[in-house]
Amino acid sequence: MQIGFNLPNSGKLTAPETMARIAREGEALGYDYLTLTDHVILPDLRAPGYPYSESGEFLSGDPVVRHELLTGMAWVAAKTERIRLVAAVLVVPHRPAVLAAKMLATIDVLSGGRLTVGVGAGWLKAEFDAVVTTPFAERGAVTDEYLAAFRALWTEDLAQFEGRYVHVSGMILAPKPVQRPHPPIWVGGEGPPSLRRAAKSGDAWYPIGTNRNHLFDTLPRLAAGIERLRRLTAEAGRDPAAVGVAYRVKRLGESLPAIASDGERRLFSGSEAEILGDLRALAQLGVGAIDVDVERDDAEASLAELRRLRELLARI
Q: Residue 54: its pLDDT value, please?
């Protein structure tokens, strides 16, 4: 199982020297990958709407202070040597398809093939209205088409793509990504469209367990989601084993409520022994990668959590 951590690109830890220090420390500790998140601009957050916490509030201490994802990934690539870089997740409609494909290919080349493209359709309408030129209601269709355009641009010598939102005829995108046929695509999201997208065209499904509308925060819930993924993958004409599973953990430990709304024990709550048991159980389900959030109030506390979790996870 691969183990990653979220490198804060928002909140109190966004000073360049702090980000570089945490990234390098994670690499030195042997983490397999780090993640960065994606928002371009945010509305007044006094009206809670974040779907991945029980309160509806962002978990970052100051989420409106934020670096742009792809610029940040390129910068982190230059500050590290071996650790993989995972977009967690790229909101695909935020950027024009051809430009995004070029930027992602550039990051993959300049990082020596260390890019994983986590993708999602997005959820924040106010941000869409400010940033995106395609309609919010069509974000799923836009995401699917942009992903298909990415693949054409990354793999075809003279890219040809004719869709509703993207039109490319005999154009050359070079250099191509180092990874062939293209960087891995992890499909984020927890609802039915995300599962179908992962089954149809993803290299992995990449849920967060705490989406209030689509919870995968207990072992039975996650097992059922993976079973649906396997069924949908077969229905899409692919080998059910062709799509891996990666899992994002926003919070863990004894501060979490132990019992979820289905009456089952909440994943990654409780003691270190219970957390290790969860990791082993998820490995048996076929989860191949797990990443955790290490952001705390300051750099030293975050680094201490990074080290503590690495020591714990080494005992899997």
A: 66
Given 3.40.228.10, 3.20.20.30, 3.40.50.300, 3.40.50.20, which CATH number is that of 2-313?
3.20.20.30
Residue 269: other Cβ atoms inside 10 A:
21
pTM, entire model: 0.94
Helix (H, G, I), strand (E, B) or coil at 49: coil
SS (H, E, C) 110-137: HCCCCEEEEEECCCCHHHHHHHCCCCHH
Mapped onto helix, strand or coil, the DSSP state of residue 155 is helix
What confidence tens digit (pLDDT) does each residue in 14-31 have?
A: 999 999 999 999 999 999
Q: 267 near 218, Cβ under 8 Å?
A: yes
In the chain, alpha helices (H): 16-29, 69-79, 97-110, 125-131, 139-155, 192-201, 219-235, 272-285, 299-313
